[in-house]
């Protein structure tokens, strides 16, 4: 007959076996939840209540939290009863993230709040290339009459409202011009001045821009001579200025009322831009005597007219 000691020992062994079996089943369940799928496998996702369908290859386009979830690296994700992998994150920004992973192209949403949400989710999922792209927005020049420039975008409150002069709205500050609003607007209104040698117009923006092109118009309403010598500079702090373009005997605004010029590629982003008259206007040397008589000056003074308007920038804007 079994002694009480033997019964106790058997019971102890049974309890130990039961515990080990329970642990085994638990580990087995955990292993089953780790996704091991081929790259062509179709995956159904439920992200914050919004459902998506994609492939493993798309989600593993680059190293990220998503690739860790679905590349068999041991990141645990749960399937629901309908076969969806549930991710407890906002669904609306994920639509833009998935589109980027599918195409390699990021199209920023026009709603600033949604754009910020996409930036946060790109950071959460650790999609490094999208983190970089989602914080910079490209403004690409199309033609002289397009509405794709940075200043026009600011005038629409970053794409959320009908256009209003960003100067009038207090979003852009212009210093030194006759009329700061006219310096930005593509009208015949005058933003410049006469006898403007070394005269500078400074445009201060609320966003940082890596510029690659700019446009400028001659203020036709003035009837004054057209500018031929000027420079465009930029600054981060308003103290140190870097020359982006230097125009010497430039006939662009003599041949037409509006023109554009490429800006060499910039690694630095700037919030302050400055237009400076650097020399005589078109036709000055030939007309000095006539100018003196018209203006009744004691000494010959070639006109350094700098009557311009319609300043516009293109490039990459840092979305803060």
TrEMBL record:
SMART domains: BTB (SM00225)
Example of a GO biological process term: monoatomic ion transmembrane transport
InterPro entries: BACURD1-3, BTB/POZ_dom, SKP1/BTB/POZ_sf, T1-type_BTB
Domain BTB: 41-142
Protein origin, superkingdom: Eukaryota
Keyword Disulfide bond: no
Keyword Cytoplasm in record: no
PANTHER family noted in UniProt: BTB/POZ DOMAIN-CONTAINING ADAPTER FOR CUL3-MEDIATED RHOA DEGRADATION PROTEIN FAMILY MEMBER, RE57120P
Protein name from the UniProt record: K+ channel tetramerisation subfamily protein
């Amino acid at each position: 007959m079994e002694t009480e000691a033997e019964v106790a020992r058997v019971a102890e062994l049974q309890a130990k076996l039961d515990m080990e079996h329970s642990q085994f089943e638990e580990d087995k369940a955990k292993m089953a939840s780790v996704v091991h799928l081929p790259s062509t496998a179709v995956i159904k996702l439920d992200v914050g209540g919004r459902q998506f369908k994609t492939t493993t290859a798309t989600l593993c386009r680059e190293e990220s939290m998503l690739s860790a979830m679905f590349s068999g690296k041991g990141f645990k994700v749960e399937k629901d009863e309908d076969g969806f992998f549930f991710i407890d994150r906002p669904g609306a920004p994920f639509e833009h993230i998935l589109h980027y992973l599918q195409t390699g192209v990021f199209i920023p949403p026009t709603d600033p709040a949604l754009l910020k949400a996409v930036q946060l989710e790109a950071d959460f999922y650790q999609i490094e290339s999208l983190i970089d792209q989602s914080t910079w927005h490209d403004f690409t020049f199309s033609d002289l009459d397009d509405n794709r420039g940075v200043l026009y975008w600011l005038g629409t409150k970053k794409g959320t409202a009908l256009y209003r002069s960003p100067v009038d709205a207090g979003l852009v500050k212009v210093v030194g011009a006759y009329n700061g609003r006219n310096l930005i607007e593509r009208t015949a209104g005058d933003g410049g001045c006469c006898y403007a040698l070394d005269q500078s117009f400074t445009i201060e923006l609320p966003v940082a821009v890596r510029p690659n092109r700019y446009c400028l118009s001659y203020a036709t309403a003035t009837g004054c001579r057209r500018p031929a010598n000027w420079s465009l500079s930029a600054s981060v702090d308003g103290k140190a200025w870097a020359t982006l373009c230097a125009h010497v005997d430039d006939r662009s605004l003599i041949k037409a009322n509006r023109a554009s010029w490429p800006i060499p590629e910039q690694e630095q982003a700037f919030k302050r831009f400055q237009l400076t008259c650097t020399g005589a206007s078109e036709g000055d040397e030939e007309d000095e005597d006539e100018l003196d008589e018209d203006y009744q000056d004691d000494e010959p003074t070639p006109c350094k007219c700098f009557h311009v308007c319609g300043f516009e920038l293109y490039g990459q804007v840092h979305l803060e």
